[in-house]
Write a structure and sequence with these properties.
By secondary structure, this protein is mainly alpha-helical. Helix content is 67%, strand content 4%. The chain is globular, with a radius of gyration of 24 Å.
């Protein structure tokens, strides 16, 4: 094909190993700037993106115009739909803060019990998962750590509890951004559409993390109070973990990633609240050596109606987002697996066979400018993948999908506008709506820039062949690759502080390596996300957030020492689970 760019995987001295070392340079630059130089994340992302583009051109031979096309497509994907979801989710959360709904919920949780063990389950685990599901990106750690400190926990302990709890929900955080991002990047690697790939990844992650959703509540209480005292609140531990895990499993498999955390966390909080009506621990545990940290009295007593109204804001969010997912649920019930080629896709009207198909929002798919050329009067992708990454030389399309009405970000924005109506009726001024949105944009301006450039790094590495060079080198780990997949994801989150960013950097790499190794790419990509969540607690960014949330700036090193071992053990458990699913329990892997 004239003008086509054919990927090569051993451009450095004809060696895949040396080529992989050079291909890792953008990631090394990112790691050194973030972890060693403590450079601002957006600056580190810009530098790493520049490194990726330079290597793609000078070493892998990618034409400069094509490298620019790949970089700009990645940035566009970062802005839409990823950052759009983030802006809408944080805007919704900020509205609940401005209306007082968040404080009402916080007080309602604090009044349920004085037992430190159950407070950890309610605040750090269940409520933290709710904030993760809506806002994510550090908000759960900052908020729950400060809440626990306000309830009387020693500050560093409060930060440790918040960091440990911020694990199992992370892969479905911010209305499912990590999995949605992963699906968009892995779909081209697999030659499948984005929607079915995202649903399969959601289902796979949903068959891994519920194991840890059951484990983490007990883990938290053991770390806080010891094994014996954990057994003293075992009913609460089981109620919190099993209810969360069951809903997380069902929603991630039947509905998708967007509502998995929100519905699971609300169910977990409700289960604990109902349990406390009929059961109380035999002894109330108020901590050891914390006499100077007695829980502050709450001067405000909210009426039951006010509490119901506060939770109603989150109910509106669930209902609106769920309404946007009705088509996906319908597809699963009718076809057994979303994205099945034999299953009619939801739409308004009927298909060629006159079968009614339900409703679906319009979607526009476009060929990204600069990445196609005319061949025989038709547009053909300029990038071609070569063996052994592909069975034969084949086109690698670079497209962009705009689904304004179907985007989770648009659904969350609609929920925010609906939830604002009762807030307005009960005294919140109309001016609070634009003011809160403007404040949200200012708050997120640098994270938005960072995400855009992180996505550009991933896209350039994928389309230049750099990711495939790394994948071919990693394939040498053989049967142990599923175990190492978890640690690759953990390292990604440690470096970037974000499961979304880790999925962006390493998700396509994991899928490509699995294909080359003869393993399931869905399992490998999902394990990147599931393993990544265990690196959240040791990320420098999250450590800083946790320390700042409890007024213990400067204690980041102490907090790290207390969570590092837990991170390594939990990541190893994710790796072992992935090994079992790959070789012993393959029926757990979703099939297209």
């Amino acid at each position: 094909m004239p003008g086509a760019f054919r990927q090569t995987y051993d451009p450095v001295a004809g060696s895949v190993a040396f080529s992989a070392l050079v291909a890792s340079l953008p990631l090394v630059v990112l790691a050194l700037l973030l972890a060693v130089r403590r450079t601002a994340p957006w600056r580190a992302a810009v530098a790493a993106a520049g490194t990726a583009c330079a290597l793609a051109w000078l070493v892998w031979g990618m034409p400069p115009g094509l490298a620019v096309a790949a970089a700009t497509q990645g940035m566009a994907f970062g802005l839409w739909p990823i950052c759009w979801v983030l802006v809408s989710a944080v805007f919704f959360f900020n509205l609940t803060v401005a209306s007082g709904d968040f404080d009402v919920i916080r007080r309602s949780l604090a009044r349920l019990t004085e037992d430190r063990r159950i407070q950890v389950l309610l605040v750090a685990f269940a409520f933290g998962a709710l904030i993760e599901g809506i806002a994510g990106f550090g908000a759960p750690v900052a908020i729950t750590a400060s809440m626990l400190a306000g309830l009387g926990f020693e500050p560093v302990t409060a930060a440790v509890m918040a960091l440990l709890a911020n694990t199992a929900p992370v892969a479905f955080g911010s209305i499912g951004i990590p999995v949605v991002t992963l699906g968009g990047l892995v779909a081209p690697v697999l030659g499948r559409d984005v929607q079915s790939t995202t649903r399969a990844l959601s289902a796979m992650v949903g068959r891994q993390l519920p194991v840890f959703s059951v484990l983490i509540p007990a883990w938290l209480v053991v770390v806080l109070a010891g094994w014996r005292r954990m057994l003293g609140v075992l009913p609460a531990v089981l109620a919190a973990g099993l209810s969360f895990a069951a809903v997380q499993l069902v929603v991630s498999n039947l509905v998708g990633p967007e509502l998995a955390d929100i519905l699971a966390s609300l169910t977990s909080m409700a289960s604990l609240a109902l349990l406390l009506r009929a059961w109380r621990p035999r002894e109330v545990y108020r901590g050891e050596g914390e006499a100077g940290f007695a829980a502050a009295a709450e001067p405000v007593r909210d009426t039951s109606g006010r509490v119901v109204r506060a939770y109603a804001s989150y109910a509106i969010l669930v209902l609106v987002v769920l309404a946007g997912q009705v088509g996906h649920v319908n597809a699963f019930l009718r076809c057994g697996q979303p994205g099945n080629a034999l299953c009619p896709q939801p739409w308004l009207g009927a298909d060629a066979g006159a079968r009614p198909q339900g409703f679906r929002f319009p979607v526009w798919d476009v060929q990204w400018p600069g990445s196609y050329e005319l061949e025989g009067g038709k547009a053909a992708p300029r990038v071609r993948r070569e063996p052994p990454v592909a069975p034969r030389s084949s086109p690698y399309p670079l497209t962009y999908r705009l689904d304004f009405l179907a985007s989770a970000g648009t659904l969350v924005l609609a929920a925010a506008l609906v939830a604002f109506l009762p807030m307005l009726a009960f005294g919140l001024p109309l001016s609070a709506l634009p003011a809160t949105f403007a404040r949200t944009i200012v708050q997120l301006r640098l994270p938005i820039l960072t995400i855009a450039f992180i996505l550009s790094i991933a896209t350039v590495m994928n389309y230049s062949g750099m990711t495939s060079s790394l994948a071919l080198a990693l394939a040498a780990t053989g049967v142990l690759f599923p175990f190492f997949s978890a640690f690759i994801g953990m390292i990604g989150v440690f470096l970037t502080g974000s499961d979304t960013s880790s999925n962006t950097l390493f998700g396509p790499l994991q899928a490509t390596t699995a294909k080359v190794s003869g393993l399931d790419p869905i399992l490998a990509a999902a394990t990147n996300s599931s393993g990544g969540v265990m690196g959240k607690m040791i990320s420098p960014q999250n450590l800083s957030v946790g320390a700042a949330g409890v007024g213990a700036v400067g204690s980041e090193g102490l907090i790290l020492r207390r969570v590092l071992g837990h991170s390594l053990v939990l990541t190893s458990l994710v790796g072992l689970l992935a090994m079992l699913q790959a070789y012993v329990l393959p029926w757990m892997i979703p099939r297209p």
